[in-house]
C-alpha cells in the first residue's frame, strides 16, 4: 500500500506508519486489492487527509466503513462521487441541512467541498471489499484512525467533533473535551433518523456558531 498522504499529515503520523501493525495492515490491504475488487480506489484511500490538511482541519466527522457498492466510495465518510445516487444516510444529512440552514438540497453527494474547507471526513476503516460491509474491520485501520483522533486532540485546540450514532460516540473517550467541542446525536441512517434520533440536531448551524465564536470561517455546508 502506497501511503500517498498530504505532507502535513505524514509529518504528525510518521510514528504510526513505522509501527509493526501498520506494516501488517499495509500487507493485508495490498493483498485484498490484488485479489478482490475493493473500495475506494487505491489512490483515494487517504483522500480525507489530502483534502483537509492537518493545519486546516477544524471540524471532524467520524464514519465507520466506506460504501461497498460500485463507484460510490471516494475516501471521504458519507460522501459519494459526482453523479452517484445519494445513499440513505447522506439523504438524511442533506435533509437536516435543509431544515437547519434553509439551504437547497444539493445535486452532488460529493463532500469534497466540505473537506476543502477543513472538515475531516474520517472513516474508522478506510477500505472495504466490494459488497462485503465490514470486511476490512479489525485489521489495523481502527488503531490507525484512533491515533489520528488522539493526535488531533493532543496537537490542536478548538476542534469540533460531530459524533453520529453509537460507534462514533465511543470515540469521545479519545478526545480532550476541555479544549475541543463535541456534538453528538443519533446516526443519519433511516433506522435511527426515523425514530427521531437524527432530525433536529442542528449540528450544522451549531458548528458554524462555534466556529464564528472562535473567530474562524464558518463552513458553507
From TrEMBL:
As recorded in UniProt, its EC number(s) are 3.2.2.27
Please name the catalytic residues of this protein: 65 (proton acceptor)
Which SUPFAM superfamilies does the UniProt entry name for this protein?
Uracil-DNA glycosylase-like
Question: Its domain of life?
Answer: Bacteria
**GO cellular component entries:** cytoplasm
Q: Residues in domain Uracil-DNA glycosylase-like?
A: 50-211
Check the record and name the SMART domains matching this protein. Answer: UDG, UreE_C
Query: Is Phosphoprotein found in the keyword set?
Result: no
Q: Which UniProt keywords apply?
A: Cytoplasm, DNA damage, DNA repair, Glycosidase, Hydrolase
Q: Please classify the protein's predominant subcellular localization into one broad category.
A: cytoplasm
> What's a Pfam family in this record?
UDG
Q: What family is it from?
A: Belongs to the uracil-DNA glycosylase (UDG) superfamily. UNG family.
- Tell me which NCBIfam families the record gives: PRK05254.1-1, PRK05254.1-2, PRK05254.1-4, PRK05254.1-5, ung
User: Can you name this protein?
Assistant: Uracil-DNA glycosylase
Please name the gene that encodes this protein: ung
Amino acid at each position: 500500500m502506497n501511503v500517498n498522504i498530504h505532507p502535513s499529515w505524514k509529518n504528525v503520523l510518521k510514528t504510526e506508519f513505522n509501527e509493526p501493525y501498520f506494516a501488517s495492515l499495509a500487507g493485508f490491504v495490498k493483498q485484498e486489492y490484488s485479489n478482490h475488487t475493493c473500495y475506494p480506489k487505491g489512490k483515494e484511500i487517504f483522500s480525507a487527509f489530502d483534502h483537509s490538511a492537518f493545519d486546516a482541519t477544524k471540524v471532524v466527522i467520524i464514519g465507520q466503513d466506506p460504501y461497498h457498492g460500485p463507484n460510490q466510495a471516494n475516501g471521504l465518510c458519507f460522501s459519494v462521487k459526482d453523479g452517484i445516487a445519494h445513499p440513505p444516510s447522506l439523504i438524511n444529512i442533506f435533509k437536516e441541512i435543509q431544515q437547519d440552514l434553509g439551504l437547497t438540497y444539493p445535486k452532488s453527494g460529493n463532500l469534497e467541498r466540505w473537506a476543502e474547507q477543513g472538515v475531516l471526513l474520517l472513516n474508522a476503516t478506510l477500505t472495504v471489499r466490494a459488497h462485503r460491509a465490514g470486511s476490512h474491520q479489525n485489521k489495523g485501520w481502527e488503531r490507525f484512525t484512533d491515533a489520528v483522533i488522539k493526535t488531533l486532540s493532543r496537537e490542536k485546540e478548538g476542534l469540533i467533533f460531530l459524533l453520529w450514532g453509537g460507534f462514533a460516540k465511543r470515540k469521545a473517550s479519545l478526545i480532550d473535551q476541555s479544549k475541543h467541542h463535541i456534538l453528538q446525536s443519533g446516526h443519519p441512517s433511516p433506522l435511527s433518523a426515523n425514530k427521531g434520533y437524527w432530525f433536529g440536531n442542528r449540528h450544522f448551524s451549531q458548528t458554524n456558531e462555534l466556529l464564528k465564536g472562535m473567530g474562524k470561517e464558518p463552513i458553507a455546508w
